[in-house]
Every structure is written in C-alpha cells, then in structure tokens.
Design goal:
Layout (H helix, E strand, L loop, with lengths): L14 H9 L6 E4 L2 E4 L5 H21 L3 E5 L4 E4 L2 E3 L3 E5 L13 E8 L4 H12 L7 E6 L4 E7 L5 E6 L4 E4 L4 E4 L17
C-alpha cells in the first residue's frame, strides 16, 4: 500500500526521495524504515511533555558544560543509511554549526525515544540495532513514562554497546559528550495530569 501522498507504484524509497516527499507533507510525521514510509502515531499529552522535558534537561546540561552542541525536540531526522531515516523524540547534535535548511542532524551524539504502548517494541528492538549503525551516535536513551526510568545504551571506547538502567532521580552521565542530567527532570509535571497513563 502506498503511503499518504506517495506516487502510485512506489514500492521502495531512498532516503533522498523520502526527505523530498516528507518536506511537502502538510500534516503528520513520518519515518523511513528499510525503504518503507511509516506514519508516526499521534501523541498523548504525557508523551509530549516528557519529550519536551528531555530536550529542556539536555539543553540545560549543554549550557552548564559549555559545549558546542544543540538539543532538538523531534523534527530533525537521523539518516541511518540510504533506506532508513528516523525522527527521534529528542537528540543532541554536537560539532559544527547547523544551517537553517538542515533537516538531517549531521552529528547526532545522543538520541532519545519516549516509549509508549504503541511504540515500545519498535524503539527497544528495531531502533536499537539501527541507531548504532550511525557512527556519530554514542548514546541511545529509552525514556519509559510508566516506570519513570531510563534505559541507556552507550557505545564504549572499544565500539561495544554497554546497556544499563537508570531509576527516577539518578544522575545520568553521558560521556564522551560530557553532559550530566538528572532523570527526575525528564518526568517533571507528570503528576499534574488526571488519570495519567503512559503516552
């Protein structure tokens, strides 16, 4: 089945074709996975709040550390290869200046996904393997609203991936970027929702 707005008969997409198509879409968010366009599900309020909190906490950590990095809440893509482009809930790009026309993060050192019932398996399994194909990515954070915890996958100096959980309120040290954030900041305001559930 063709994706909304896609040319009929388009069975497989390249990253460049997908990005040109996605820029023309007036509504919705999309990712490209193995040449197939996937629409991203609408978000509930807790999900939107937590991903905003993640970016805000990372941005504050960047300022404290005085690093040449920028934090972004969804929108910028991460190109894994010629047939896969993800749009993480949050990312930190470090290095050179980003131009106003940038739609792909050139050096995404940290990527974060906020998991929900509809996205959990995809983020935990599929994206785990693909994100670390990108040579710039050192940290993949999976932020779990339900348990208010963070699962961190990090690329070590030897290239091996090290994984570990961080409970609510613990300090998260993100080397080699040099950023430190408290996971409590990711979940601020969640108690303000009535009958709050996972996003």
């Amino acid at each position: 089945m063709d994706s909304p707005g896609s040319p009929p008969g388009m069975d497989s997409w390249t990253a460049d074709l997908f990005l040109a198509w996605a820029e023309r879409q007036e509504k919705g968010r999309y990712e490209l996975v193995d040449g197939q366009i996937r629409a991203m599900a609408p978000e509930r309020a807790p999900h939107a709040l937590v991903k905003y909190n993640v970016v805000k906490a990372l941005e504050a950590a960047i300022k404290r550390a005085g690093l040449p990095c920028m934090a972004f809440v969804d929108g910028l893509g991460v190109k894994i290869d010629e047939t896969t482009v993800f749009e993480p809930d949050a990312l930190v790009n470090c290095g050179g200046r980003i131009t106003k026309d940038t739609i792909i993060a050139p050096n995404p050192v940290i990527v974060a996904e906020v998991i929900s019932p509809s996205s959990g398996d995809r983020d935990l399994v599929r994206k785990y393997f693909r994100y670390f194909r990108h040579p710039a990515i050192y940290h993949y954070l999976i932020v779990d609203i339900g348990s208010r915890s963070v699962l961190r996958h990090s690329r070590g100096a030897d290239g091996k991936i090290i994984s570990g959980g961080t409970e609510h309120g613990e300090l998260l040290a993100l080397a080699p970027s040099g950023l430190e954030v408290s996971t409590a900041a990711f979940f601020e305001g969640l108690d303000e929702f009535s009958d709050a559930e996972e996003a």
